Every structure is written in C-alpha cells, then in structure tokens.
Amino acid sequence: DGNYEWVTVIECINTSGKAANPMIIFTGKNFMKSWMEGRIKTAHYANSESGWTDNKLGREWLAFFEEENRCPDGKWQLLLMDGHGSYLTFSFL
Predict the structure, then answer these.
(1) Which of 10, 44, 86, 92 has the greatest CB tally within 10 Å of its CB?
(2) Strands across the sheet containing 7-10
(3) Distance (Å, rounded) from C-alpha 27 to C-alpha 45?
(4) pTM here?
(5) Residues near 41 by Cβ (< 8 Å), separated by ≥ 6?
(6) Are 23 and 57 in contact (CB under 8 A)?
(7) What is the DSSP letter of 47?
(8) In this model, does residue 2 exceed pLDDT 70?
(9) Do 86 and 57 meet the contact criterion of CB atoms below 8 Å apart?
(10) Is the dihedral of CA 82, 85, 86, 91 positive or negative?
(11) What is the reported pLDDT for 3?
C-alpha cells in the first residue's frame, strides 16, 4: 500500500560463521517498546528520525559489539567495515 518506513540493521558475522547480535534502528523521534514485541530478543534496538544509522548510533553499536565479542584470551581482533561515514569518525576509531 506504499505506507512503509525505513528500518536499518547493523550486523556482523565472524569468520567462523557466528553472527553478532544486530542493532535494529527504527524510524521515529521516540522509541516505543511495542516495536520490540515478537522481535529478536538479543538484538539492540534504537531509533533515529530518518531510520538510518548516524555517528552516535554507529558508536553505540561498536560499544555493544566490543562488549559482547571480546576474546576471552585477550587476543587482538580485526573488524572490517564498509565505508559508511558513521564508522569514519574520531570517536568510532
């Protein structure tokens, strides 16, 4: 019916095939808990006026990713990203 809004998903899969918990970004000024009903329980949910990621949400996703995917033995990891501008900020790097 043409009544659609943007939803963005930031996702990551490692070389062993394990998927990190995604961040799902809905369109809206305020976040509504009803958006999460029946959704992925381990996902991180956010909102933006455009429904797209931005510098702040990119940094939030990185914090979630780093906390949940830290190597238990303390070894370094390499995270490869596409060239989206929200990943190319000083606070993200």
Answers:
(1) 10
(2) 7-10, 23-27, 44-48
(3) 11
(4) 0.73
(5) none
(6) yes
(7) E
(8) no
(9) yes
(10) positive
(11) 55
